[in-house]
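seq:
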Amino acid sequence: MKKNDLKRLIVLLAMAALVIAALALTGCKNGTDGNGDLAPTAVPTEAPEVFTIPTDYELGAWTQKAWEGSVVYWEPVTFVTDINGEMPELTLMYKPTQILEVRMADGFERIEEGRDYQYDRQTNTFSLGKTITLTEGRDYTVSESGKITLKYYKQLLQVTTWESLHPKYKENQAHDWLQMPDDHSRYFNLYNTLYKSRIYVTYVHQDDWGDSYVPKSELSKLPRMKKMLIDKQDLNFVIYGDSIATGADGTGPDELVIDVSNGNEISYKGNSAPHTPSWAEMTVQTLRQRYGYDNVFKINRAAGASESVWGKNNADKLVNPKKPDVVVIAFGMNESGRSAAEHKGYINSIIDEIHAKNPDCEFILMSSMEPNPELGHTNLSDFEKAYYEIQAERTDLHIAVCPVNSVFWAVINRGKLFTDISSSNFNHPNDFLIRLYAMTLITTLGM
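struct:
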């Protein structure tokens, strides 16, 4: 071979290698990767010179996966103290290289480092420049019946002690959370107290998720749904679960859900900044956007205070008439003390009830966040394991698992306090944890 021919061959081989590498990075046709999942959206590795931080709900920012990229939007830090007035370490999931913005939750005024808060870059911890406290008369009033009215929101809040909720909690006196001044009782459902004591941080980081848990795509487990999306067919996407599936305690849900007492449809809405919708809504919005059509229909059959046994007894009445193509089954929080074996039996019964009249339906089994870890051990992690058992055993059906419980513990183990990600300090997610639900389900669906 001549010397010039050899040079040309080397150049051609190099060009071919570049083409192959580009195809591997950009994925196959229809914007998919080599496994048929949608190729991930590129995320910035550093803040651009012109960087817009949303001041209200924005789908892309709200569903930017916590375990990917280098920008975290609106991560909450909640300033609460224990019975002795001491504040635990308040940290972010990553160590920021640049804090882009910090906002207060009530009114969302921007606040400034040094004047309003301090951030220790060595320890990645926050402290207050001015103490956030609630003062009777100024911030709230207490009626003779024991109801507290928080003046800022003009809402009535029924205070209930941990002791009346969970007698065994008396045994552990080491941790007192969110008590009102001069009262050492523990309280839950302090939605507005947490809301007013929270800041939201948007920042850039260089460190990665490390060995923390990362959910994986399970779209290959849902071949019919995948084909319907690619072919842009009408898709009935049904949600069936408890109050967390209704969007409870988010700032902006707008759902038609079920009244657990009578099975009737009711409206559930929220209208506070930043207007975060339910995780179901964020998921359906993402499906419509990624696949380029609108006929992905969200049908919410969730009911507050429901359990999987209720789900078994009502699936035929509430779910089957909707002709579901996919059902997300999301029970667990209200039965965290039930054995995994019993819960597994009820989930299998729900699947059977739906499959009997909708034989082509596919299923997504979504595990639950934990309630306040200080209440003690629950079986919710075992529920998630049971879902993988169902998936392995029910080879006659198409079943995916959405591992929210594992993601919850990953975030806790990265330093987030329960008060940072809970709306009530008891058993409901706040906006950020609702977003984590959406991120996990979106990942499960290969997006």
